[in-house]
Design brief:
InterPro entries: Cys_Synth/Cystath_Beta-Synth, TrpB-like_PALP, TrpB-like_PALP_sf
CATH topology of the largest domain: Rossmann fold
Keywords: Pyridoxal phosphate
Number of domains: 2
Low-confidence stretches: 1-5, 316-323
Largest sheet: 6 strands, mixed
Number of helices: 9
Protein name: PLP-dependent cysteine synthase family protein
Number of strands: 10
Cofactor: pyridoxal 5'-phosphate
Helix content: 25-40%
Oligomer: single chain
Strand content: 15-25%
Radius of gyration: 19 Å
Shape: globular
Distance between the termini: 51 Å
Order of helices and strands: HEEHEHEHEHEHEHEEHHE
CATH class of the largest domain: Alpha Beta
Mean pLDDT: 92
Length: 323
């Protein structure tokens, strides 16, 4: 007998709202490279407020179809916050119980929204970084296999394939309207590696000489959602195709926040990882090598009010984002 799928609510409208996000042009690039055009996908308009809705929807629907939640199993995964919101939101809509392991430096807005959907939260030591949350989820999955199905966005192929089949296809279609061609360069980051791997693979099929730059944050305090690759002990996501990366560009939290504030003055209210990507994109543009660059605005700035990054009445300090 085939195990029954979880009792889903009417999630069709919610799922239909994922993807098909606008491609916006960022005019700031003209200040450093008048001949370069910079475009970005505005992912905050997804129902869950971030780009993570895309891979989470694909991973969750495939898991339901495969009967992964038979016997009342819970979906388990680690997240810096955005994927956790997507899991909790879609789990509530599809009738799947969810447990998320999150590092303690995730913003309060993220934690509150995950809890609002009824998901179980396990908080790990922020000093230990995001990899501590990853290892905690791995340990729980091994210790309690009857309770959890570990989605493991770090190694789940449905993660990168969501961006290959959807995000990158949208980018190509939208850029064709704007410029008539595929981009010369892509700027992304590595959280799970899904976005960079999926988008870069698809764009390279159309533009073999595409330049791929990865934004690399400091180890501490870091930038929510991005991994500082290259340090001893760092967990490198299994699905990340590092051969796609042509250049790794360092970016600090201060630089990311400063760019977020500049973008807000242009009407784009985004989070620190988006600021990091645009900061790196402007560096690439300043080289004069690229006519068009594309990147991602991963989530909304509303998710970071508690970090004090938007308090323009006083100087922003890196320690405030940890409180």
């Amino acid at each position: 007998m085939t195990a029954a799928a979880p009792a889903a609510h009417d999630a069709h409208g919610l799922l239909a709202g994922i993807g098909h996000t606008p491609l916006v042009e960022i005019e700031l690039v003209r200040q450093v490279a008048p001949a370069t055009r910079l475009f970005a996908k505005l992912e905050s308009v997804n129902p869950g407020g971030s780009i993570k809705d895309r891979p989470v929807a694909r991973m969750l629907l495939q898991a339901i179809a495969a009967g992964r939640f038979a016997g009342g199993k819970r979906l388990l995964d680690s997240s810096s916050g955005n994927a956790g919101i997507s899991y909790a939101m879609l789990g509530a809509a599809l009738g799947v119980p969810v447990t998320i392991v999150v590092p303690g430096n995730a913003s309060q807005e993220r934690l509150q929204r995950i809890k609002a959907y009824g998901a179980e939260l396990i908080i790990t030591d922020p000093i230990e970084g995001y990899d501590c949350a990853v290892r905690t989820a791995q340990r729980l999955a091994v210790q309690q296999p009857a309770r959890y199905w570990h989605c493991d966005q770090y190694s789940n192929a449905d993660n990168w394939s969501a961006h290959y089949h959807q995000t990158a296809v949208e980018i190509l279609a939208q850029l064709h309207i704007c410029t008539g061609a595929a981009p010369d360069a892509l700027v992304a980051g590595v959280g799970t590696g899904g976005t960079l791997t999926g988008v870069a693979r698809r764009l390279r099929e159309v533009r073999p000489d595409l330049h791929v730059a990865a934004a690399i944050p400091e180890t501490f305090p870091g930038i929510e959602g991005l991994k500082p690759l290259g340090h001893p002990g760092d967990i490198v996501p299994a699905l990340l195709d590092q051969s796609l990366i042509d250049e790794r560009v360092a970016v600090s939290l201060e630089e990311a926040v400063a760019m977020c504030r500049r973008l807000a003055l242009c009407g784009l209210f985004v989070g620190p990882s988006s600021g990091a990507f645009v900061h790196v994109a402007l560096k690439l543009a300043a080289s004069g090598k690229y006519r068009s660059i594309v990147t991602l605005l991963s989530d909304t700035g509303e998710r970071y009010g508690s970090t004090d990054m938007w308090n323009t009445d006083s100087d922003w300090r890196r320690d405030k984002i940890l409180t």
